[in-house]
User: Fold this.
Amino acid sequence: MTRTASDAVIDTTTRRRLGFGFWVSVGWLFLIIGVAVLAPWLPIADPNETGYGGRLDGPGWAAWFGTDTNGRDMFSRTIWGARVSLTVGFIAIVDGILIGGTLGLIAGYFRGAADRVISFVFFALLSFPGLVLALLIIASLGSSLMVVSMTLGILSIAPVGRLARAATLTFAEREFVQAARVLGSTHRRIMVRELLPNVMIPMSALALLGMAITIVAEGGLAFLGLSVSDGFSWGKMILLGSAPRTLRNGPWVAMMPIGAMFLTVLALNFAGDRLRQYLDVRELAF
Amino acid sequence: MIRFLARRLVALFAVLLAVTALAFGSLNVLGDPLFNVVGFIASVDCDAVLAGEIEDISGQTAGGRGDCEVIQAARKEHRLDRALPVRYVLWLGDIVRGDFGTSFKNEMPVRQVLADKLPKSILLMTVAEVIGIVIAVPWAIVAAYRANRRFDRASTVTSFGLLAVPNFAMGIILFYFFVVRWQIFPSRFEDTNLAARLKSMVLPGLTLGLPLAATYQRLLRTDLITTLQEDFIQMARAKGMTDRWVMFRHALRPSLFSLVTVFGISTAGLIGGALVVEQIFSIPGIGRAVVEAVIRDDFPIVLGSVVVIATGFVVINFFVDIIYSLIDPRVRRDD
Assistant:
């Protein structure tokens, strides 16, 4: 997904305010993370209890989001699905930032040969069809939560790394870095104490955008038959609801998780985009 | 310029080498090619059987001389007796000569499979890009013409919304309304004639094209707004030219740069990136072929597809770089 450069006109007036929409987005994210974490203790139906309601009951008082073909409560399933989807998104982007961020920092700080090699690796990774790589890894290593998350993390190394490199480049020749160098700081100290805090700022905006992309990618994998095998994610729920007969007789089975995913992705995108404008990040990796 | 081109070409080939090596290596390391060719008898210890250390039980169960002959023939045919790097180089040589090998599963030449699937994916890509551009350009022009007014604000919200709909969700929503409820479009790909093919491509094309339209609209709108603040636009206005003339004759062309770049990247991505959409709308394109081949461990098809997809991606990006440098000579200097 590509995002626009900072909007020239809007920027001058609103750049230094995060705005109302940002806080609404953050509010939604806290809400969804909260219910996902607290799902086992919330007074909701067991997501795997077949026959909680009738088959394909429409949304109503008994089951707010309706029931699926096995009479399972869709409201409860949507909340439990959030656990898997959000976990995958979080682990993947943390992975990407740890590996890609480190590589990008090294490339941007040392320049020269290290930079050329690392930039080349990033470009090769970007040229490789991402979902195919994910397919290959998951098809042979199995689709446990960890494997899926790690694989999606590998896919985010290159975009994250490129941003980290670009951000490092802009800081590497600044006075405070030169001062540290003159004072005899080691490379490691300069990178960790001087550069990292500055590079982490634009990365925080990217983390939100990246998490949205990863959550969507996990859903895409579900459609290719490679969803997380332990538990069910929103993607897998949408896949189950998208069988033509289910779709005709109970569209809510697919539409409820679609709605949840849409709002979450929208919130992540919006919050990330506002944060990016607020922090004035010009380099675009995604 | 020639040096710039030469450098880009070298980088292009280096990236292709890296991508093919990554694909070839990961397939051979993550999977077991021998097992995929001959099946469960791959675990037979042939050296021991042929040396007479293990009893020859051919004709009864796995593990006999007959099985070993099959295994050795397969080893030889697929060069599994060579070291991995050697195999890679030999395989690459075949690819360069246009020999993509044969499928492990049904002995079809990979070239034929690709030649059958690729046109469908390219048709889908074309429909998606046409939809994206046709929607985005007028939309961006109107939005930029009255920047920050009501229409522009509404379209910012709309494009944000469109970008937050995952492509499979978009596919399911369109499928629900246009196929299940209103039954306007067919539920799977119909290959009878061009009209039927195009009709089958409308929904998948929209699924991919609407988010593209949103992306392009955001890019072009931003660039147009920036251009409209330039001095030469003021000059044109001062000379009394109409808004329409200024917009189309003066502002539009210099604002197309980022659109061209992203257009190239997304086109390249779509050659093989429509895996999920092809799956939902049952289009027998290259994306589906890859998915099926990965699941059935049909290495030659996976490798052939990856080569085609990656080459498409790299070559299109190469041309985008060139177009970009033709438009903006500064690109040639730094690098």
